[in-house]
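Q: what sequence does this backbone want?
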């Protein structure tokens, strides 16, 4: 048992009376005291003189003495190494001061120039051309052998290279790496400032705790994970929000854009790794194999330490889940011991979805965790009311087992308070890691061992991705293989075929260090429908379904002995070639995602060529070409070969088939964005740009200027979270004008789009112009919530809201069924296929307009019961009595991966509508077919809408 007899603080020195006794009464040596108290001991024996100016300022900027832990209340001085105050003129968390990314990087470079304990490395540029930087800190002896320590962790990451009998020797040469990431979400502005002070403390400190950290742990710091967003947000704060008296007055606290493509979703990119910042995070993991990756966020009071309510992802090793609890309890205990109120765990987040940035650690046998501290979206000081904040049913001001010292109902909170909490927590974590290094590294190795063992003992033992010749879309199959390789997964390609498979198949054995991740990414999930608390994010991510790629599990251990399996050492590419002979070229269209990009490229390279979509199936020789297949006329043999090779489109030279058809004319596309929500519009732009599909961005002012039909054929309206009033009126004009343009005062503004005033919306005038556009023959494509806008404003008046009481539909893979087989929107798709849908509005049409419903949710058909005899209808002409034409389907197979509650509320309802409006039409999706660049299988639904924009087939 451990008894804390007394704790007293004098400046930075702690006097702690400890007595440890076993149940048998034996004394326990002091060095065996539980590690959770190491954070309490921080800076117990200072070796440098203390910075009196810092001590005075930190007390002045901290709003309550209970918010100032002793571990960060003072700072050592150095004659050679500049402190943040000496460099910037202020301490971290000073009122009204926020620094741009380059200014922060400048400080780290000044540290590196002054001491060998700090090294600054470049991770490459962002989309906006700014640097991404990584900082390494340890004592001088460790820094001299940094590459050797990296190599040792790489060995531990693959336990096949470290037999159990060699483990202790390898551990003796290893040091854990603790990675800290700040500024991923740009309005969460405290961590980039705090990390400068932490870096200085580690670079200068000579007290026993700092020495333990720097000699036993390599600290990596990603100072600003999103530099583009950091600079835009700092400009926004300096120009607009710095002097606001009330943080909750409704004024926009955030710049409209953070990164060029993603705002908050930049922490939802871990699976697709589309963004430069995510690629840098992942590259850092594979280069360094950090033992812990710690993401510093700000949203809730006062400091939440991640564990989550569960259900936990079933493919995370039990050791990892226990480590979350271990580290969280250490931090809470250490901060409680220093008197900090409002530190808690458990009741926020779940631990299910694997696509967060720092989850690259959890996915690869390390420890991924995060903080949420209380931020003010800047460096102001405000009175914050916590009385309405509740998680897992409990107020954040209530005392719970997971929150032993709650805060008061109201707090006066400053930027420095935020820095204090974050920095004290991180120091507690680093101290724990320093004193438990061997344990954490052993567990890292053991999780890899366990993953290999599970791969050999649990079905399926492997997954097979059939070769390109057996895939509907070979380019998507290649993309899946390459994505798995980017996740560090080993893949083998079959060089020979037999009864178990074909040459060219890709085989992923699960008996590998990341075998658990293989199952995590390829198996279908089953989120517990009985979970007490709602999921934090999407609940399904099965990559085969999301990409439209055939993947199968292997339940026979003979897979471990298959011959002809060659380990891939590079990415793969799918190509095709031209076969046959004839005057035209035809292609069986199966919703290959490369067709639209190929046609745009062809328009530029060979404008005399024309492509047509067949409106019925046809045969060429012995081959049948389905509805929607493509016929090219005027295409040269060289251009045909280039299309086949570059886009993996299998062209067949043939005589011109006699079949009804319409021309595929590549449209002039606009993508509309609001200023009140740019998140999903960014993913739409990303998808178009990476598919090389040209488009023009437009906003409210473009709508009001009118003449849209002269410029565009199709306007895509991405998902945006807001009701009809927001769509009409946008950002409240009472705050205007709010320019978002590059100026000397705000150099980071104006990208990726600009406006002289982001307030207001298109108004009724702009919506009237949108109505004119579609009336004149244009096509509007709406995704998810924007479909409610197009309905609610009367532009697509045939659509109306459909109430679905009790339906709970977090992001899941579900089954859909074609209702209008001739619709060009569905060309290339089978009669039933999977789509990804999250929570969102449903719409419907009157029975008389049922032909507008082209795709429904669920695989069954909800028919109507025969209503019996009908007056005025001759007995001989009416349908057989007492018989149902079609029984409503319960559609038990609706959910393919994930979870939906009360699914009967959605079965048979509209997923896609084709609504004629004037001379044009609205293609209305009630799901987001361009979700986070993840659901590639659905992109061709949007491409079909673009390709067939002027086809009128009903």
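A:
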């Amino acid at each position: 048992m451990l008894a804390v007899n007394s704790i007293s603080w004098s400046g930075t020195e702690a006097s702690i009376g400890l007595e440890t006794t076993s149940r048998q009464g034996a004394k326990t040596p002091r060095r065996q005291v539980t590690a959770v108290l190491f954070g309490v001991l921080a800076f117990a024996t200072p070796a440098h003189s203390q910075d009196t100016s810092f001590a005075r300022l930190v007390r002045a900027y901290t709003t309550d003495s209970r918010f100032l832990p002793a571990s960060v209340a003072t700072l050592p001085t150095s004659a050679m190494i500049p402190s943040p105050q000496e460099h910037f003129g202020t301490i971290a968390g000073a009122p009204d001061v926020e620094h741009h990314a380059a200014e922060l990087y400048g400080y780290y470079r000044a540290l590196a120039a002054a001491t060998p304990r700090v090294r600054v490395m470049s991770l490459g540029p962002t989309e906006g051309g700014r640097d991404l930087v990584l900082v390494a800190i340890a004592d001088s002896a460790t820094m001299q052998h940094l590459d050797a320590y990296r190599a040792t962790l790489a060995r531990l990451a693959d336990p096949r290279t470290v037999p159990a009998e060699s483990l202790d020797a390898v551990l003796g040469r290893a040091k854990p790496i603790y990675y800290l990431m700040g500024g991923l979400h740009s309005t969460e502005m405290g961590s980039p400032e705090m990390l400068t002070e932490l870096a200085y403390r580690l670079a200068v400190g000579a007290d026993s705790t700092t020495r333990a950290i720097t000699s036993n742990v390599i600290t990596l710091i990603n100072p600003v994970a999103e530099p583009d967003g950091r600079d835009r947000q700092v400009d926004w704060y300096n120009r607009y929000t710095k002097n606001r008296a009330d943080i909750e007055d409704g004024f926009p606290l955030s710049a409209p854009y953070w990164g060029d493509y993603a705002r908050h979703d930049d922490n939802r990119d871990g699976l697709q790794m589309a963004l430069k910042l995510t690629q840098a995070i992942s590259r850092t993991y594979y280069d360094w194999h950090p033992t812990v990756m710690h993401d510093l966020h700000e949203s809730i009071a006062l400091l939440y330490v991640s564990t989550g309510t569960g259900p936990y992802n079933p493919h995370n090793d039990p050791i990892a889940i226990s480590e979350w609890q271990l580290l969280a309890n250490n931090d809470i205990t250490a901060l409680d011991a220093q008197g900090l109120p409002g530190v808690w765990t458990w009741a926020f987040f779940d631990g299910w979805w694997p696509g967060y940035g720092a989850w690259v650690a959890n996915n690869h046998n390390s420890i991924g965790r995060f903080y949420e501290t209380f931020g003010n979206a800047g460096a102001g000081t405000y009175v914050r009311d916590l009385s309405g904040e509740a998680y897992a049913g409990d107020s954040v001001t209530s005392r719970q087992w997971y929150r032993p010292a709650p805060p008061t109902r109201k707090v006066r909170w400053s930027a420095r308070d935020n820095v204090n909490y974050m920095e004290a927590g991180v120091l507690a974590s680093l101290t724990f890691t320093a004193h438990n290094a061997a344990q954490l590294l052993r567990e890292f190795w053991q999780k890899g061992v366990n993953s290999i063992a599970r791969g050999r003992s649990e079905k399926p033992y492997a997954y097979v991705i059939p070769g390109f010749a057996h895939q509907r879309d070979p380019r998507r199959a290649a993309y899946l293989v390459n994505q798995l390789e980017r996740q560090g997964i080993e893949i083998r390609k079959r060089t020979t075929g037999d009864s178990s498979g074909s040459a060219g198949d890709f085989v992923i054995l699960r008996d590998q260090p990341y075998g658990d991740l293989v199952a995590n990414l390829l198996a279908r999930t089953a989120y517990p429908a009985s979970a007490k608390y709602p999921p934090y994010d999407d609940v399904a991510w099965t990559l085969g379904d999301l990409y439209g790629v055939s993947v199968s599990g292997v339940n026979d251990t003979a897979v471990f002995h298959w011959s002809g399996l060659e380990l891939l050492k590079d990415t793969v590419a799918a190509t095709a070639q031209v076969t046959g002979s004839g005057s035209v070229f035809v292609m069986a269209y199966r919703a290959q995602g490369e067709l639209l990009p190929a046609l745009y490229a062809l328009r530029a390279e060979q404008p005399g060529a024309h492509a047509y979509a067949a409106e019925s199936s046809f045969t060429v020789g012995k081959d049948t070409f389905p509805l929607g297949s493509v016929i090219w006329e005027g295409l040269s043999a060289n251009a045909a070969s280039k299309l086949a090779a570059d886009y993996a489109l299998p062209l067949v030279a043939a005589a011109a088939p006699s079949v009804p058809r319409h021309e595929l004319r590549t449209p002039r596309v606009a993508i509309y964005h609001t200023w009140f929500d740019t998140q999903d519009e960014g993913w739409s732009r990303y998808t178009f740009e990476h598919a090389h599909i040209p488009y023009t961005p437009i906003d409210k002012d473009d709508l009001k200027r009118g003449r849209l039909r002269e410029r565009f054929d199709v306007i895509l309206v991405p998902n945006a979270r807001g009701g009809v009033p927001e769509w009409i009126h946008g950002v409240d004009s009472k705050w205007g004008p709010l320019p978002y343009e590059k100026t000397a005062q705000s150099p980071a503004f104006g990208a990726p789009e600009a406006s002289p005033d982001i307030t207001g919306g298109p108004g009724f005038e702009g919506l009237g112009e949108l109505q004119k556009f579609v009336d004149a023959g244009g096509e509007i494509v709406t995704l998810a919530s924007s479909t409610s806008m197009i309905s609610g404003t009367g532009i697509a008046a045939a659509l109306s809201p459909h109430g679905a009481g009790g339906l709970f539909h977090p992001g899941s893979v579900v089954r859909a069924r074609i209702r209008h087989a001739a619709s060009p929107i569905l060309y290339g798709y089978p009669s039933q296929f999977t789509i990804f849908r999250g929570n969102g509005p449903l719409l419907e049409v009157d029975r008389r307009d049922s032909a507008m419903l082209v795709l429904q949710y669920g695989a069954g058909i909800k028919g109507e019961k025969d209503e019996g005899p009908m007056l005025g209808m001759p007995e001989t002409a009416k349908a057989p009595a007492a018989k149902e034409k079609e029984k409503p389907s319960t559609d038990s197979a609706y959910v393919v991966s994930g979870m939906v509650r009360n699914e009967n509320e959605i079965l048979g309802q509209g997923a896609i509508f084709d609504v004629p409006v004037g001379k044009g039409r609205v293609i209305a999706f009630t799901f987001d077919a361009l979700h986070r660049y993840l659901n590639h299988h659905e992109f061709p639904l949007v491409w079909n809408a673009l390709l067939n924009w002027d086809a009128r087939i009903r």
